[in-house]
User: Fold Protein kinase rad3 from Sphaceloma murrayae.
Amino acid sequence: MHLTSLLLPLLPCTSALLIPRAGGPTATPLPPSCTPTSPTTNLTSQAPIGSFRKQHLLYQFHIPLPDATPIAERWQECLEQCNGLEGCVAAYMADGLRAPKNANGAQGEKGRGCLMFDAEMAEGDLGEVKGVRKAKAGNLGCEE
Assistant:
């Protein structure tokens, strides 16, 4: 068996394991004064609506699925990157999100996405999206 045949299945996972991401915000642990709160109790298949994304999106990253890292761990990373990004006050993560046009080779492919915003999310900023699952959203709620 060739070494390449053993390593080839690992290639899709390698980009997801590089932390911090090149050009991305530095993950900054949440201090005790930050208590993330969800804008809604029924979030599982919801995503930020287009107008909210257009007005308030600061940064996003996408990871191809399957992802060997549990979504809870990725969600913590998403929150900490939001905390490290100036002006970021809310974050969102879910499986089944389409990668944006500028995503290196993954354009339009569904995967796990983390979106960071400069405005807190409210229930009306989210809507049902077919194929979205395991959604999580949080307003950081950091006290100055």
Observations:
- Residues 71-84 form the longest helix (14 residues).
- The mean pLDDT is 83.
